[in-house]
Amino acid sequence: ISHKGFILTTIIVNCVFLALDDGDENSKTSEIGDIADYIFTAIFTVEMLLRMTAQGLYSCGRHSYFKDNFNCLDFAIVLMSYIQFLFSGANFTYLRAIRIVKPLRVIKALQGLRTLTTALGEAITGLINVLIFFSFCLFVFGILGMQVFGGRLGNRCVQSSGSVTIFLQDRACWPNSALDAYSCGDGEVCEHYGQNPFYGVLSFDNILVAWLNILQVTSLEGWVEVMNYCSDGVSTTISTIYFVSIVMIMALFVRNLILAVIFIKFNNEKNKAKEQETTEN
Questions:
Q1: Interval 219-242: pLDDT, tens
Q2: One GO CC annotation, please (predicted)?
Q3: Are 169 and 156 in contact (CB under 8 A)?
């Protein structure tokens, strides 16, 4: 078995022991897990020291141990393991949570996962630009939604019977029947109810709640229902254009833009890894 295969197998077995830990420090399973933890830490320590000896710490060129971010991650994990051992006798049970970082070693062991992780890190700059574009669209659609739907989703069809006003249904309406919005029936009047749908959450009365509803639309969860309420309260045509534009630009286009940025960075890192492997061979 090769060195990489041995380390990868050790990492997987270590993850299995971590998964079998029942959290009870006095149980037999926990005792076996602690013993295995010492063994695995010793193996990873030896592997780390061998790499440091072979590659040098920092001043031996670009292949030095601490010039590789994944080696730094491995060093930090080993160091945290010793911190856990050092305070194992104290009543610091939360230090056992340090174990959750140990499976991160698999990132270093698998080249494809290393490439993907590096690509995600390199894509942050491009994703910031996408985030700026998304924020700009959020601001524009928020202002537009306030101008079009603000204060209009609280209208309801009412029917007056003497001194009693009966609100017929939880559906927005529009008093001007010329628009393609929901119009009240005979003997009914469209009046302001005072509360927006969904206990006031579905609203465009201020910029914050408008952003909240726009973000819901961009998640593509329940956006049709939001559009239907706005169609009843203002106009079907206007609401359809508004919400379909949000879905097309902020949901689909931005999502594909994010994937494109990550894909480009992933291909770049993949090519770099191939060139580095060719150079080393």
A1: 988 888 889 888 888 888 889 999
A2: voltage-gated sodium channel complex
A3: yes
Dist CA 58 CA 258 (whole Å): 35
Q: Which two tokens stand for residue 216?
A: 């819901």
CA-based torsion, 12, 14, 17, 22: positive or negative:
negative
pLDDT digits (tens, 9 = 90+) for 24-39: 666 777 777 778 878 8
